[in-house]
What we know:
Two copies of one chain form a homodimer.
Chain A: H1 5-18, H2 28-35, H3 39-51, E1 55-58, E2 64-67, H4 76-84, H5 113-130, H6 134-139, H7 143-154
Antiparallel strand pairs in A: 1-2
Helix pairs in contact in A: 1-4, 2-3, 4-5
Amino acid sequence: MKLSQGVEWGLHCTALVAQAPDGIAVSRRLLSEHYGLPEAYLAKHLQALVRAGVLTATPGPRGGFRLARPDEQITALEILEAIEGTAPAFLCQEIRQRGTGAVPPEDCTRPCGVSVVMAKADEAWRGSLASVTVADLVALVPSHTRKRNRARLTGEPTGDR
Amino acid sequence: MKLSQGVEWGLHCTALVAQAPDGIAVSRRLLSEHYGLPEAYLAKHLQALVRAGVLTATPGPRGGFRLARPDEQITALEILEAIEGTAPAFLCQEIRQRGTGAVPPEDCTRPCGVSVVMAKADEAWRGSLASVTVADLVALVPSHTRKRNRARLTGEPTGDR
């Protein structure tokens, strides 16, 4: 079981957009260069984040991406689901209704215990991600990295060579 | 993100083995026929469950599979990890250290916030599965299905046509 690389990209890029001062849109190029990501492939994920209501996109030479809502109102789960979709990792094939031991349909009005257990685990996973906001992600970035990011996002000198 | 079908097979087959009366080993053929599963492919997963200490295998014409430990001591997580492995679904590629925004190595002694958040979600998922035992899975099987399974496992008539 593997999540796509896009999840890491989406979480980092959204957290970086959240570090831009008010009124500053972050270009796709800046995002791709900042993290060394392929721009065309990143574009696909950024569009998914726009469709999911995480980011807004403004066209034009000074255009780019902004958060669609305040950072404390956007969760890590929304970003993950924008990229990976909402389908649970466990897909019940109802094997209880197959083979010589097949349980008759009239005894299958309640979901199979195995799928209930897997669904609860999926809820625990999503619940954990729903409890983390973009504001929390930004707070986990060390303060000097945040300061340097802010300078980059505004086009100020960063003090780097 | 998808779990393999083997997870469903492993959970159901272990729960069925747990329903066999003491001293009765459940053959691979019975398991594959009971759930309508391809025997050769199921064999691979059953071997993984033996390696993981969930099942024991006895060779010979009356051989088959038994639980390696009491059903209340085997968790759904052990079965899942026997089939899927223990690697987390999220693989951090450390993109914070790439590109023009690369954080220098000396500032990366602590794990990246994104990977911390994803690791916590993974723990919540595995924790949920670790809280469920094979005894719980058996208890979720309706009582008349359990009775019928027991008859099949002992070779008694099941009352089915």
